[in-house]
Amino acid sequence: IGNADNSADGLEKIIVGSLQGILRIYCPRTKGGGHEDLMMEFQTEAPILGLDIGHLVGSSEEYLIILHPRKVVVCSVNVDTKTQDTGTFYSISQIYHHKLERTACNMCI
């Protein structure tokens, strides 16, 4: 949970990853939630074992950290500048990755 897209309003989002490698970011607007709260869905290349948000890479922005079995990836969540009338579109940009020598099971940031 955190301000994954660094929005000015500071609203916290819920970030969920699956063993199928699907990353979803939700911005709950109402109690109970629903499919309309889904901000973005992104297919990664490997299972997602852990997620965190933190101030990394020497910046005041928050970055999304994704733990895969053999790699840690630091990403930024960006608002697409080509936003259309149908809504806001988001993308994920990889900032940094680090390959692991051994299989990971968890992380602490």
Can you put this structure into words, describing what you see?
The chain is mainly beta and 109 residues long. It contains no helices and 7 strands. It has strands at 14-17, 22-26, 38-43, 50-54, 63-68, 71-79, 90-99. The strands form 2 sheets. It has a 4-stranded antiparallel sheet, with no helix packed on it. A hairpin with a 2-residue loop joins β5 (63-68) and β6. The model has no long low-confidence stretch (mean pLDDT 84).
Labels describing this entry:
109 residues; mainly beta; three-stranded antiparallel sheet; 41% strand
Low-confidence stretches: none
Fraction of helical residues: under 10%
Widest sheet, order of strands:
4-5-6-7
Judged by helices, strands and strand pairing, the structural class is mainly beta
* Number of H- or I-type helical stretches: 0
Radius of gyration: 14 Å
Main sheet properties: 4 strands, antiparallel
Order of helices and strands: EEEEEEE
Give the overall shape, derived from the CA principal axes. Answer: globular
User: How many β strands by DSSP?
Assistant: 7
The pLDDT mean sits at: 84
Approximately how much beta-strand content do the residues carry?
35-45%
The end-to-end distance, rounded to whole angstroms, is 14 Å
Topology:
Blueprint (H helix, E strand, L loop, with lengths): L13 E4 L4 E5 L11 E6 L6 E5 L8 E6 L2 E9 L10 E10 L10
Antiparallel strand pairs: 1-2, 2-3, 4-5, 5-6, 6-7
Give a short summary of the structure.
This protein has 109 residues and is an all-beta fold. The protein has no helices and 7 strands.
